[in-house]
Recover the amino acids of this structure.
């Protein structure tokens, strides 16, 4: 029983007429790294808020660590670490004070927090910035501080809402490394993202959400295998010409997707297919062969791209 | 480096202590931790700007007491004895001072924390409840009001405007005034959605300041208007403190106290509900 | 999405754009101000009514009772304070429209940097801000005077002179505030401090509610250095003929003009250096 961190059954959240989360079912097990994937407005953040026990569900069942969040909000939150999408750091305070006061909110003692703050500053590589105010930190540092803050109460489960949105590639890799270390120590991670590479890097298992519903569930590899081909050829013919080649391309592939700026050709052997395309006299302006990704899974499931 | 203990962390033990108590979904028994955070914020801000809030009423006292007082002469107190104009307006300005301190924190600062800093969302992600946040923030505003009141008294008492030992009670009375304004101020602010609406708070406060028997007795007004003024919190506060500082103690004092107690409780209830509705939806 | 079709580099007349920079800024400010029209009118009318009733009728009644109906300088109390109240209203209007937009432009939404990416210069931004602030001041004073006239607090003949003196006070103070605000990096608590230690004393100790010479000498200096007092003195001379010597008149006028010029001269270079950062 204790190994299930989250159990959601027919979970629903309605704001007025708008159904943000429309009857979803999932379970998150202890020590797992679980992803919620989907475009903006899919209902990921709303789901996350319900898991954080700060938002009441409209109907269905939700059990966090074996308890009902409606009745045991503060008590459940004592087990959780939350890293919100907008960092929501306290801009009136210095770096170390952000960690300290947040720990105090949990009722933790000064004695406990003094070494804890040092430990977290080291973990987030912010020791030299301890006395800086939040504004003086870079975007990557602010995000690391937000994660460190979410760990101050030694949580069993860390909830991260879009952890790397807006960060440069280097900062993302540092973050992924930190999150990976936490997972190794047995912290359950729940992550929302609309970045495919992030989900592939971090998640053992994920659900793909769109318009408040779950479209698919599984590990990244399973999902790619089930919903896409092995490789993809991306070709561009110029804005006005893409559509006219569609029929011809269809015959060369398992499946194609015509996007406004390019055509995706799904196939098991990319290079061979590309050769065939040129052999038939089609000369794309640019072309690219790559492995299938979760982006393609999403496109297949919803007919839309993730980041638009 | 071990960031996570295998054993249950102490944050959990602390939270579990309150299991089964009344209001466990909204109250964790730790509003003082919210106040502590405000102390940290104060430390790294321009604290002179916060602490010096009581000087404005002192300036009013000097300007109107020394300047206008000369062209007005003496006033009469509630018992019909003559008092100097300075002594007449000093209690009113003390009440105003407490009000200003409490209102500034519970309106502008709360608005900023709600809409820009998202501080309450952050707090509610921890094991604090909405009643903790409401009490902590109102408590801080109340402290600020109380500090302004003490500052004001420290400056004006040597000027000889306190004529009774009951005047010492003016400080707790001013604190009660601050409590009332802080809790209603925060409740009202939680309904406001733009800075434009925030300006309407001042639009309401200015006439209340000018007309609540601060600079002249309300007997100058027609009777129906007098009743309207008497319903306003600042008039209640001015009269309460004027009675104490001039040593006129009667049953009305208890009416004023009851007024502010009610105001405080109503504000607390509304604020907690609003925080829950806004940030836990 | 549809395609954009244009001939790059042909749309803007750069000479005209450079010449009209300050107006472009003013127009932008007026546009954002127009969204506040409702509150501006309510505050613009509400403020004078509140002061008229509380100061004019309330305190006025106490003054009349004590002076046997003589008032001050031989005029009613409200006529005595009217020039000061008008100057205060104008000063507050300019103060709002100078400080907040400047903080917004440099710090909050950094609009000034965006403007500076067009042909608009730093100096034109400063001028544009002052222009809009002055328009707001004029608007406020007109509303205020309308209320005073309707209630018969001032005679019609005083309307124009008091309009001018209060706008002069506001221009001088506004320019000084512009020079100060452009030097504030981020700390908005400084506004609270300025409000408390500069604006409130200026309002209260500039002979606003009583003749300045009734104050103890150690408080009178506040009046001497505040644009409020100089403008109020001029206003009292022009509206009901408070006796003043020619040299006094000249001194008051020169003081206001000097503060205005110095304020602008100190504002321009800081606008320039800050935008180049």
């Amino acid at each position: 029983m204790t190994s299930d961190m989250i159990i959601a059954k027919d979970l629903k959240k309605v704001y007025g007429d708008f159904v943000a989360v429309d009857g979803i079912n999932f379970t998150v097990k202890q020590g797992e790294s679980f992803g919620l994937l989907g475009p903006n407005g899919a209902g990921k953040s709303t789901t996350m808020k319900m898991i954080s026990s700060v938002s009441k569900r409209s109907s269905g069942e939700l059990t966090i660590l074996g308890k009902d969040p409606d009745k045991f909000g503060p008590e459940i939150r004592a087990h959780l670490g939350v890293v919100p999408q907008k960092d929501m750091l306290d801009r009136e305070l210095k770096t170390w004070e952000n960690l300290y006061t947040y720990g105090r909110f949990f009722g933790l003692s000064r004695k406990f927090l003094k070494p804890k703050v040092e430990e977290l500053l080291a973990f987030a590589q912010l020791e030299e910035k301890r006395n800086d105010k939040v504004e003086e930190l870079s975007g990557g540092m602010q995000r690391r501080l937000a994660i460190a803050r979410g760990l101050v109460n030694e949580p069993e489960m860390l909830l991260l809402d879009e952890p790397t949105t807006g960060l440069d590639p280097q900062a993302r890799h540092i973050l992924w490394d930190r999150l990976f270390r936490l997972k190794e120590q047995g912290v359950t991670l729940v992550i929302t993202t609309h970045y495919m590479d992030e989900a592939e890097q971090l998640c053992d298992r994920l659900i793909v959400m769109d318009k408040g519903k779950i479209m698919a569930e599984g590990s990244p590899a399973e999902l790619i295998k089930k919903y896409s081909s092995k490789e993809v050829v991306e070709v561009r013919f110029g804005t006005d010409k893409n559509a006219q080649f569609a029929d011809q391309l269809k015959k060369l592939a398992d499946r194609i997707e015509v996007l406004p700026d390019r055509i995706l050709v799904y196939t098991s052997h990319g290079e061979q297919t590309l050769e065939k395309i040129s052999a038939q006299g089609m000369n794309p302006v640019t072309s690219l062969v790559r492995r299938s990704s979760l982006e393609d899974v999403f496109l297949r499931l919803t007919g839309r791209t993730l980041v638009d | 480096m071990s960031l996570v203990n295998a054993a249950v962390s102490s944050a959990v033990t602390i939270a579990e202590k309150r299991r089964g108590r009344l209001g466990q979904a909204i109250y964790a028994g730790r509003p003082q931790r919210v106040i502590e955070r405000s102390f940290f914020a104060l430390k790294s801000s321009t604290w002179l700007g916060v602490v010096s809030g009581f000087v404005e009423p002192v300036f009013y006292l000097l300007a109107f007491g020394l300047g206008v007082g000369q062209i007005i002469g003496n006033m009469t107190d509630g018992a019909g004895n003559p008092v100097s104009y300075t002594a007449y307006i000093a209690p009113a300005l003390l009440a105003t001072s407490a009000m200003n301190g409490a209102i500034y924190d519970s309106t502008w600062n709360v608005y900023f924390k709600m809409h820009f800093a998202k501080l309450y969302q952050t707090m509610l992600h921890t094991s604090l409840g909405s009643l903790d946040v409401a009490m902590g923030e109102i408590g801080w505003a109340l402290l600020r009001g109380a500090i302004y009141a003490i500052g004001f008294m420290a400056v004006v008492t040597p000027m000889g405007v306190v004529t009774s030992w009951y005047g010492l009670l003016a400080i707790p009375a001013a604190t009660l005034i601050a409590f009332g304004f802080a809790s209603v101020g925060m409740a009202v602010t939680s309904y406001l959605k733009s800075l434009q609406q925030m300006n309407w708070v001042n639009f309401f406060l200015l006439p209340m300041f000018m007309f609540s028997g601060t600079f002249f007795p309300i007997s100058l007004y027609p009777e129906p208007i007098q009743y309207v003024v008497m319903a306003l919190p600042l008039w209640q506060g001015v009269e309460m403190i004027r009675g104490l500082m001039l040593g006129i103690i009667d049953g009305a004092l208890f009416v004023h106290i009851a007024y502010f107690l009610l105001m405080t409780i109503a504000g607390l209830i509304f604020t907690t509900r609003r925080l829950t509705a806004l940030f836990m939806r | 999405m549809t395609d954009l079709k244009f001939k790059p580099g042909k749309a803007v007349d750069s000479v005209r754009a450079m010449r009209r920079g300050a107006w472009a800024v003013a127009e932008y400010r007026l546009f954002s101000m127009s969204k506040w029209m409702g509150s501006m009118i309510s505050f613009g009318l509400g403020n004078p009514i509140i002061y008229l009733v509380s100061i004019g009728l309330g305190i006025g009644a106490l003054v009349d009772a004590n002076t046997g109906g003589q008032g001050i300088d031989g005029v009613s109390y409200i006529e005595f304070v009217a020039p000061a109240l008008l100057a205060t209203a104008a000063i507050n209007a300019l103060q709002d429209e100078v400080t907040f937009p400047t903080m917004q432009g440099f710090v909050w939404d950094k609009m000034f940097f965006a403007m500076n990416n067009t042909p608009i210069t730093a100096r034109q931004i400063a001028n544009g801000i002052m222009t809009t602030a002055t328009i707001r001041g004029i608007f406020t004073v007109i509303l205020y005077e309308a209320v005073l006239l309707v209630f018969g607090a001032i005679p019609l003949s005083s309307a124009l002179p008091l309009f001018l003196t209060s706008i002069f006070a506001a221009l001088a103070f506004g320019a000084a505030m512009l020079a100060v605000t452009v030097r504030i990096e981020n700390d908005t608590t400084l506004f609270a401090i300025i409000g408390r230690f500069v604006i409130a004393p200026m309002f209260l100790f500039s002979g606003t509610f009583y003749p300045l010479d009734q104050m103890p000498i150690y408080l009178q200096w506040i009046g001497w250095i505040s644009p409020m007092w100089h403008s109020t003195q001029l206003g009292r001379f022009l509206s009901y003929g408070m006796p003043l010597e020619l040299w006094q008149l000249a001194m008051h006028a020169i003081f206001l003009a000097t503060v205005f010029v110095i304020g602008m001269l100190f504002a321009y270079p800081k606008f320039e250096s800050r935008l180049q950062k």
User: Anything to note?
Assistant: The first strand of chain A starts at residue 4 and ends at 15. Residues 169-184 of chain A form the longest helix (16 residues). The radius of gyration of chain A is 22 Å. Chain A has a mean pLDDT of 87.
